[in-house]
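Record Heterokaryon incompatibility domain-containing protein, 686 aa.
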Amino acid sequence: MPYVYSSLEGEHGERHIRVLKLLSKGDEPRLRCSLEIIDLNESPVYDCLSYTWSDPLYHELSAGYPLDIRTTTGDLDHEIECDGKMIPITENLEDALLQFSKTGFISNSVDGRAENKDGLIWIDAICINQKNDAEKNDQIPMMDEIYTGARRVIAWLGRCDEHVHPALEIIQRFKSIPPEKGKVTITDLEGPEYESLFGSPPISSQQWNDYAAFIQRAWFNRVWIIQEAFLAKHIDVLCGPHVLSWRHDFWDVAKFLRDTNLGTLLMEQADGTAHPDRKSTAYVNNSLNNQYQLEVMKAQSAKEPLSLEKLLVYSRYFQAGQAQDHVYGLLGIWKSSNRTSKLPPDMMIDQTLDRDADDFVARVFTKYSWVSIRNTQDLNVLSLVDDPATREQHHLPSWVPGYSVGFHVHPLAGVPRPEPGKERWNASEGLPPFEIPTSDSERLSVKGIRFDTIDEFATTYSGVMDQYDINSLLELVARYPGEKYPSGCTSLEAFWRTLIKDTFCGTPAGAEARAAFQYLIAGCVGHLEDASEGLEEDDVDNTAALSTLLDKTKITIKQISRKYNDTVVPDVEEINDILERVGTLDPDSDEKKKLDRDFDDISESFRIAYSCRRLFRTKKGYLGIAAESLGTGDSVWVLAGAAVPLVLRPAGDGCWRLVGEAYIHGIMNGEVGRMIGKELEQISLV
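=>
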């Protein structure tokens, strides 16, 4: 018979929750438990389980994937006996409880905390009546209090697979590296810095993939763990029978991999292994950053309250079964960080919304975007909007970010935003202050200056790196009308600065970036030459077309050389000299190391700036980069309250749709207001 839940309502202000006591031991064939009701007001001793309802494992790096891999679902197709009745549960939860039955781990001691002598544990799927919407509406908003009040949180990563033991061995190797040796930047998994760091035997590609599969398990990427791990006083991590330290085995290692750049290299290699046939450059989510950012958030919250905007930004690196959880899963953290027990009225979950409506998620995202705008009193939220082509929520107003989709670009305005006084750009400087509209409608009323119109544009990052079409970028500057750029520099100077958003190694671009840019051009031409000669394995069938493209590219370079006489774009002979020098230099020489480092740095600057964007020229002659979906005829606006220019598309009746933020060389710091004045036009974004 199914279990019948009793009421959790109290008569005297009690805050009742249910907790589970596991009764089965060892290898009993059936899981048995009982449920007890406790009052949070009495500071009871209990633990919380943090886990994923659906498949906990990452399979794409497993042998035999996808045909020979057994996956699990989030279906409630398993059962636990509770006080003689049955409660349906998922397979992953069953695996966790079976492991607890064998080890009794939930009663282990935690330093400084009272013993959980009765082995009480709170598990959402069992302790909340999942068939009672009214109870769910009461209990889910209490989850922040439940996790804060717990003795500890047990993070269940799932059962063991073939990746676990090699991954645990790698973690031990990371932990054995002296801190002083970790102060290097690794740019190549075969370079001398890498070899010096790990010594012998080297870590093989398969071992790296084992580790990548382990840290890409679903638990690390689900949005609710932001709240569960953030609020936890203590976290123990379980993977099968293995007990791991959140601090030492995960956060310290994640910080090490982030500081050395190994995390990025690792994820890129793993993605290449999982998707060897992918023809285009793809965004690769780095779940190591999730582990790192959780502790960063805790440290920041100890100093000052976390803003809703910052939490919404963090949530985009995680995944959720329901898109609205990218908002709802953060509200408990906001309360804790802002030292309040209740949400303000405008942040309360609107229980009147129809969750089955097609526009439900869009309305939730719009509501909390308004909250963020009122909190920040500016339009920074517009910089969080991705290219329209990447959107999953089709009912979203164009100005509302899709919080359930990870960032495909590095927002120009900063993610999260820079500290006051450290902002790089302020395009609306000098304009009247942003006036916050009072209504929470789907339309956002703004004021600004329509500065210019897009006249032509070039290829995307994928077009340059995967189709070798550096010529598309070069042609745009080769046929640039006029000799001078509007801001006074040469158009070639504006060109190279625009392609890296005037940023090199995280700082404003200077002479070092200018000197390194020639290596980016030479490297792209060198790759095109290799592909045209059939040396690139994936393009042997396209050698004729690529040979034609190479000829066109060399002609364009000659045109630029005659027009500008500037080595920032080297001529054909200089490119040949660079490529020849790269091939003949001693790999251990200082000159080769310096050249490799410059190439890596300028390539990374280009990737960060240009990935998922494309170069364009406006009718007035300004060069910029913005979302790939931009088109001829789109307008460049500078809006009061927005730190960077925006590309908008007419939608009729004084309304516009946001295409995306833009870097436009020469108008990033108040120049538009000084050139045109402060007379603003009022429009609506829809």
